[in-house]
Amino acid sequence: MTTPVAPLPSLRVSSHFIPSLNLIPNTSLKNYPLLIYHECFPPSISAAIIEAHLRSIGVVEPQWRYTMYNTTHFHSTTHEVLCIASGRARLCFGGEDNPGKVETEVKIGDVIIIPAGVGHRLLQDLDGGFEMVGSYPKGNDWDLCYGREDEKANIEAIKDIAWFDRDPVYGDEGPALQIVYGGV
């Protein structure tokens, strides 16, 4: 079976640093950017093939297939890798009231790497049937935080979360590693 991902030299990647907003830390604590791999998988991809590919790389474990919640939330226990398996959607990263937010459209085949602490939400399912494969680094469990006062201890714990030592989609190479070594 051939690798179902775009060759690295032709992969287009968006990298975003998002300032904190109230108790949503975004990229301010660890300075790891939100990464979007555009058209990483072909438009003919299925959720099952995405899951098989991620398992073969061995960095993250696919845990669910679903849309994105329409309330801004973030994870304080893990980074998140979202692979778009069907449809198109408009998403908001950083909190809708954040002047430094990122609002973007994603579509089937895109991959989003969301660092712990980055707020995210669905703004609009553009075609109906928007679905992602949600994955997390092996051994990590995810939580839901909303930027409330009672979550301050959770937010502080983000500082202890290590970045990827292998790219979750490409393995020993890839954009997620370039941020550690001074790229992207």
Could you say what the CATH architecture is? Answer: Sandwich
Could you give the distance between the termini?
Answer: 29 Å
* Count of discrete alpha- or pi-helical segments spanning 4 or more residues: 3
Helices and strands, in N-to-C order? Answer: EEHEEEEEEEHH
Strand order of the largest sheet: 1-2-7-4-9-3
Major sheet size, sense and barrel closure: 6 strands, antiparallel
What's the number of structural domains?
Answer: 1
The CATH superfamily is known as Jelly Rolls
Low-confidence stretches: none
Question: Can you walk me through this structure?
Answer:
This is RmlC-like cupin domain-containing protein. Pfam families: Cupin_2. It comes from Suillus plorans. The protein is mostly beta strands and 184 residues long. The protein has one domain: Jelly Rolls (Sandwich), CATH 2.60.120. It has helices at residues 47-57, 152-157, 175-178; strands at 12-16, 34-38, 60-66, 80-86, 88-93, 102-107, 111-114, 120-125, 131-137. The strands form 2 sheets. It has a 6-stranded antiparallel beta sheet with strand order 1-2-7-4-9-3, covered by helices on one side. A 3-stranded antiparallel beta sheet has the order 6-5-8, with no helix packed on it. A hairpin with an 8-residue loop joins strand 5 (88-93) and strand 6 (102-107). The longest helix has 11 residues, at 47-57. The two termini are 29 Å apart.
